[in-house]
Predict the structure.
Amino acid sequence: MADTGIPLLETVLVWGGALTILGGLGAVLWRAARGVVRTGRRMNEFMDDWYGEGPRPGVPARPGLMERVSGMEDRLSGVEHELHPNDGGSLRDAVDQANRRLANLCPDRLEPPRRPPPAT
């Protein structure tokens, strides 16, 4: 370091440099700590969603992810029988019956429709 010849100025510059380095290091540590805390909160929220939460005063219980997936599977199994024919009681049977009726009213033409010739 170059000597300025003014001891007070040199002392101020050394202390200013030290404070700048400490301030920068403190800012980096602060940002890192904030990131760790934010990630910890998100992980806590994820775990609450995964395992669910019990009831609290004024707040009902929330089921966990596996319990909700199980509920969705139960509801889907109740609808699944609608996709397969079962002697007239399913949605599939109703659609097939509507298709048969429509085919009787509007039989398909034997030859494909003709396209008009391209304009020249």
Summary: Residues 7-52 form one domain.
